[in-house]
Design goal:
The protein is an alpha/beta fold and about 375 residues long. The chain has 2 domains: about 1-45 and about 290-385, Alpha-Beta Complex (Aspartate Aminotransferase, domain 1), CATH 3.90.1150; about 55-290, Type I PLP-dependent aspartate aminotransferase-like (Major domain) (Aspartate Aminotransferase, domain 2), CATH 3.40.640. The protein is built from 14 helices and 15 strands. It has a 7-stranded mixed beta sheet, sandwiched between helices. A 4-stranded antiparallel beta sheet has the order 11-12-15-14. Strands 1-13 form a two-stranded parallel sheet. Helix 2 runs antiparallel to helix 11 (about 280-290) and helix 12 (about 290-310) packs parallel to helix 14 (about 375-385). It is globular, with a radius of gyration of 20 Å. About 45% of the residues are buried. The model has no long low-confidence stretch (mean pLDDT about 95). It binds pyridoxal-5'-phosphate. Pyridoxal-5'-phosphate binds near residues 98, 99, 100, 176 and 210.
C-alpha cells in the first residue's frame, strides 16, 4: 500500500491533466489542483517501469507491430481468463491505439451515415462526439437516477432501451461497462436483460470495458463476451486505466466474428491511426504477466479513498454509490447554477473537478472528482471542500 502513498511531481512531464494551458482552455482558471482527466497520480507497476526501461535501453524505436508477439496475446487472453473467467481466443484480439479509436472504427464498420447508436447518458463525452464524427446520431437511453438509502445510483431504463432498440435505424448499443461517470458495475441480471433486448432487435453491442479491472474488492465485473454466445458484439479493453499507462497508446479490441475483425483492421488502416507503440507493447505484456498483485493492492487503496470521501463529504454534496473506478460522481445541484458550481470549486477552492455537463444529458448539476491520488493529498482536498 505504501507504493500509493507518495507520487512524484507531474510538473514538466508533458502531463495533459496538469497542463496549465489545457486547464485554462478546458476549465477556465489555470492554477487548479487537477482532479479532472482520468489518469492516476500513482507510479505504474514496477514490472512495467522495468520493461519500459529495458526497451528504452535498446535504443531503436522504429515502426512496431505485435504481429509476431504470440506471448503478448497469450497474456492478454490469460488475464481475461484468470481474472474474469472469460475465454478469449488470441485471434480475436486486435491492436488499437485507443478505445475511442476502436469505437470510431466499429461505428464506421457497422453503420451507414445517419444511423443511430444508443448511448446511456450521462456517459463519457467522446461516446457522443465519436458517433457524430462517424456521421451517425447518438440516441439517448437516459439512465434512471435512483435515491438509495446510502446515496443515489444509476439504473438502466430497460423499457426505454427496448423502444430505442426496436427502431431499425438504431444499429448499435454503446455500453459503458463499468459505467463512467456513474461508477456502476453492471450485474449479471442487468446485462442479461440488455442482451435479450439487443438480441430481440438485432442490435450490435460495443462494450467499452476500459474500467473493467478497476472495480472495488468484492464486486464482479462481467465481460460482455462471457454472457453473449452470438458474435454480435465487440469488447474494448486496455491496460491504460488499469496500470496507469494511457500515454502509451495501446488498447485491444476483441471481436469474435472474423469478417468484422478483418473489416475493423481495414478501417483502422484507412483511418491512418497510429501503429503499435513499442513502449505500449512491452508495458502491456509486463502488466498482464506480472502486475496482478499490484492491481489487487491498488483496488484496496482506491476503495479506501472512496470511503474517505464518503465519510467526509459535506451534506450539500450527494456522493453516488459506486462499485468501481476512481472517479467520484457527485450531485452538487443544491449549489445552483453552473456558475455557482464553478465559483465553489474553481474560484473559492482551486479544485479542478470536471463539470457534469461534459457527460451529456443528466450530467448538469454534477461534478466528477478523480480520487486516484495519495490519501494524504485527498484529505487536504476534502478539508478544502468542507
Ligand atoms: C469509458 C471510457 N472509454 C474510453 C476512454 C479513453 O480511452 P482511450 O484513451 O484508450 O481512447 C476513457 C477515458 O477516460 C473512458 O472513461
Amino acid at each position: 500500500m505504501g507504493y500509493f502513498n507518495s507520487c512524484p511531481s507531474r510538473e514538466h512531464s508533458h502531463s495533459f491533466k496538469y497542463s496549465s494551458s489545457i486547464m485554462k482552455k478546458k476549465l477556465g482558471p489555470q492554477n487548479l489542483q487537477p482532479l479532472w482527466v482520468a489518469d492516476m497520480d500513482f507510479l505504474c507497476p514496477p514490472a512495467v517501469i522495468e520493461a519500459v526501461k529495458e526497451r528504452a535501453a535498446h535504443g531503436i524505436f522504429g515502426y512496431s507491430t505485435m504481429a509476431d508477439d504470440g506471448e503478448l496475446l497469450e497474456h492478454v487472453s490469460t488475464w481475461q481468463k484468470l481474472r474474469l473467467d472469460w475465454q478469449v481466443d488470441t485471434p480475436w484480439i486486435s491492436y488499437s491505439p485507443g478505445v475511442v479509436n476502436s469505437i470510431y472504427y466499429l461505428v464506421q464498420a457497422l453503420c451507414e451515415p445517419g444511423d443511430g447508436v444508443i448511448v446511456q447518458n450521462p456517459v463519457y463525452g467522446p461516446f457522443r462526439s465519436v458517433i457524430k464524427d462517424a456521421k451517425c446520431n447518438w440516441i439517448n437511453n437516459q439512465m434512471l437516477k435512483i435515491q438509495g438509502p446510502r446515496g443515489p445510483y444509476y439504473q438502466m431504463d430497460l423499457e426505454d432501451l427496448e423502444k430505442k432498440a426496436a427502431d431499425p435505424k438504431n444499429k448499435i448499443l454503446l455500453l459503458c461497462s463499468p459505467s463512467n461517470p456513474g461508477g456502476r458495475v453492471w450485474t449479471m441480471e442487468e446485462l442479461t436483460a440488455v442482451r435479450d433486448i439487443c438480441h430481440r432487435h438485432e442490435v450490435f453491442v460495443i462494450s467499452d470495458e476500459i474500467h473493467g479491472d478497476l472495480i472495488f474488492p468484492g464486486e464482479r465485473h462481467i465481460p460482455w463476451g462471457l454472457m453473449d454466445s452470438t458474435e454480435n458484439w465487440a469488447v474494448l479493453i486496455s491496460p491504460s486505466k488499469t496500470f496507469n499507462v494511457p500515454g502509451l497508446g495501446t488498447s485491444f479490441c476483441i471481436i469474435k466474428n472474423k469478417k468484422l475483425r478483418d473489416q475493423f483492421n481495414l478501417i483502422k488502416y484507412h483511418n491512418h491511426g497510429a501503429m503499435e507503440n513499442p513502449f505500449g507493447l512491452v508495458a502491456a505484456k509486463a502488466a498482464y504477466a506480472k502486475a496482478s498483485p499490484w492491481l489487487n493492492e491498488l483496488k484496496e487503496y482506491l476503495k479506501g479513498n472512496y470511503e474517505l470521501i464518503d465519510r467526509s463529504i459535506p451534506d450539500n454534496i450527494k456522493l453516488y454509490r459506486q462499485e468501481g473506478s476512481y472517479l467520484a460522481w457527485m450531485d452538487v445541484s443544491s449549489m445552483g447554477s453552473v456558475k455557482k458550481i464553478k465559483e465553489y470549486f474553481y474560484e473559492q477552492r482551486s479544485l479542478g473537478v470536471q463539470l457534469g455537463e461534459d457527460f451529456g444529458p443528466g450530467g448538469e448539476g454534477h461534478v466528477r472528482l478523480n480520487f486516484a491520488l495519495p490519501s494524504r493529498v485527498l484529505k487536504e482536498i476534502l478539508k478544502r471542500i468542507n
